[in-house]
Amino acid sequence: QTGMTTYDPGFVNTAACSSAITYIDGDAGILRYRGYPIEQLAEKSSFLEVSYLLIYGELPTPQQLTEFTERIRRHSLLHEEMRRFFDGFPRDAHPMAVLSSAVSAISTFYQDSLDPFDDEHVEMSTVRLMAKVPTIASYAYKKSIGQPLLYPENSLGYVENFLRMTFGVPAEPYEVDPVMARVLDMLFILHADHEQNCSTSTVRLVGSSNANLFASVSAGVNALFGPLHGGANQSVLEMLETIQADGGDVRSFVRRVKDRQAGTKLMGFGHRVYKNYDPRATIVKRAAQDVMGRMSTSDPMLDVAMELEEIALADDFFVSRKLYPNVDFYTGLIYKAMGFPTKMFTVLFALGRLPGWIAQWREMIKDPETKIGRPRQIYTGAVQRDYVNLEQR
Ligand code: SDX
């Protein structure tokens, strides 16, 4: 009986670990961070406040939030020698590959404060990652378009600073669109944690060897890169672009997916846990309609996405397999409307998921009982046999 929830023994035996951070009920479509419903946090909170909640377990007081925000602001710069690091990548390097490499690389400047069992070191690593990952993400983008890197502007808010470093240029002032910043802040909240998903379990598993927080998060970034996980938001846009390029015939595309001829699943649909509508997708869909509504030109791809959802949700192939839109189905449309290229979509997912990775790593390091144990296997290989000399083979 934990958190007013009773688990059947079968579930407990298959659970990778225990955790007090995020609760999901896949059948009921429930998602709560430290007990708070995602719907309330998305509407009323901010990404840094939710990050504090996930990492420290409680909503911050006004003073705690101010101090947390200030600590992060003071560490948003990268070590100047990191600027050369970005020169080493080809211009078309995928920003997720740059991100995972850079997250690991920045730890080399802090080798005297990486001890996972030193509270001060863990605190500094937490703040440094929260502060520097947006800077790295924006630099990965700037590198890909051959524009100069912008230093952080610490008079701006967390998301605003990221937007300015990403879309600003030294030649002219950059005005952050407050609506865009608020929507992106809310999207980061929706992505902030999600129990033991592939990338978070990776962070825990790597961290269970007492690897430092930077190394563990870098591994999480690589896991998120996969198209079936965080890479799905990029794949959704590519799927919608394919449908549009084929004349927008959604029904024939759905038929090809069902006949396994589309060479792809319905990206942005289905979930390992949610066998109902992903509660985050509901919020993102509303935000997508709102953002498009504010745009002078609505994106025809939103119409394709909504038609695709309508057709799929009326089709027994998807309903019988409990395949509903997940968090990735609509997010890409909003990112595209904001001006991000598809290659940056998964980087945005990583920015949102960062506090969840940090919180889960800290929980595991603090309480070895919550470590993902060493996984075992069912051996299906050859039975014992004796060595055969080369000349006799
Ligand atoms: C994320 O775990 C998390 O919490 C992840 C995440 C997070 O916040 O961290 O929520 C983020 O990763 C969301 C998921 C993003 N991925 C995609 O949108 C990619 C498309 N989705 C599929 O790859 C798939 O739905 C999964 C991997 C997400 C979930 O797969 P399941 O539920 O384990 O289902 P399955 O792979 O066992 O397939 C069951 C059946 C199969 O058909 P049959 O063999 O029974 O005939 O459903 C089919 C699958 O082929 N199927 C799909 C499908 N997903 C499953 N068919 C078409 N389109 C799909 N999207």
From TrEMBL:
SUPFAM superfamilies according to UniProt: Citrate synthase
A molecular function (GO) term: citrate synthase activity
Top-rank taxon: Bacteria
Entry keyword annotation includes Acyltransferase: yes
UniProt entry tagged with the keyword Transferase: yes
Catalytic activity: oxaloacetate + acetyl-CoA + H2O = citrate + CoA + H(+)
GO CC list: cytoplasm
Active-site residue list: H271, D328
Biochemical pathway: Carbohydrate metabolism; tricarboxylic acid cycle; isocitrate from oxaloacetate: step 1/2
GO biological process, one term: tricarboxylic acid cycle
Alphabetical UniProt keywords: Acyltransferase, Transferase, Tricarboxylic acid cycle
Pfam family, one: Citrate_synt
Similarity section: Belongs to the citrate synthase family.
PANTHER family: CITRATE SYNTHASE
Name listed for the protein in its UniProt record: Citrate synthase
